[in-house]
């Protein structure tokens, strides 16, 4: 399996984070000894991490600490949680401290072999993206940012429904962690009690018919600070939830969550490659939070009010408007009050 070679500076930052991951104060002297650098060198590393958005507290005569315990992402731990028979499907698994975007990182690599996947996880994204050009806000240690690169030898049936199939795979991973009441809002936002828990962004290059290369980005809120929730609500008008709340504050290990996502995706993508969306229709229907509900659909050219009536085999949304069925392949959808 291919791996990324880290620079000495990034390696030291990772090692410092590992020393601070328990949330307890560590003296500058102790950290310097562990890292075989000077105390001034420790300060420089702390300053560099703060510049990346990592909050590190410091007090005289006590040293440095993270505000809370953090389950740092670790390549070996993630890989060990994946069933052995699926590991050969992973062409590379990169776990990065800092990246502009996990999707962009994978898009810039050489094409993945057909039937295998490249995976990238990052602790910090400087330019994480959601659908329709929105930013994806995920402070250090608060969520899981993971992307998958996959190449179809030929675009499968109902290729446009890939996002819906991905959403069912993400829901399956969350369900295995014990997350209940999780649904999907077309096309691929995962909600818990009408609040956003996770999202999917798919970017593709290729032509139909012919080979198609996709990069699938998944962001999941794990333990979001109140400041981040407020920032999302202000900037995007979206109420969010996280797995700590869903699981009644039993925050899951992010490495375990990453392993489950990789496992679900490694099972879903080959099936979708051969059979398209059909094998996932029933799972999608069980998760569809819009079904038979009043909705507002906003596209680039219009705003439509109606009743959601499920999806077509190609993933387009059916909406009943004044007794007629209209179909939408893109747009923002929101639930309306029954009043």
Written overview of the protein:
This protein is α+β, with helices and mostly antiparallel strands and 339 residues long. The chain folds into 3 domains: 8-65, Winged helix-like DNA-binding domain superfamily/Winged helix DNA-binding domain (Arc Repressor Mutant, subunit A, Orthogonal Bundle); 75-285, BirA Bifunctional Protein, domain 2, CATH 3.30.930; 290-335, SH3 type barrels, CATH 2.30.30. The protein is built from 10 helices and 14 strands. The N and C termini lie far apart (56 Å). The mean pLDDT is 89.
Notable traits:
31% helix, 339 residues, single chain, Arc Repressor Mutant, subunit A, 3 domains, SH3 type barrels, 7-stranded mixed sheet, 27% strand, alpha+beta, BirA Bifunctional Protein, domain 2, 5-stranded antiparallel sheet
Assign the CATH architecture of the largest domain.
2-Layer Sandwich
> What is the CATH homologous superfamily assignment of the largest domain?
Bira Bifunctional Protein, Domain 2
Q: What average pLDDT do the residues reach? A: 89
CA-atom Rg in angstroms: 21 Å
What is the straight-line distance between the termini? 56 Å
Spatial strand sequence of the major β-sheet: 3-4-5-9-8-7-6
- CATH topology grouping of the largest domain: BirA Bifunctional Protein, domain 2
Secondary structure tally: strands: 14
SSE string, helices as H and strands as E: HHHEEHEHEEHEEEEHHHHEEEEE
Q: Number of helical runs?
A: 10
Which percent bin holds the helix content? 25-40%
Supply the helix-strand structural class. alpha+beta
Beta content comes to: 25-35%
Domain count, please report it. Answer: 3
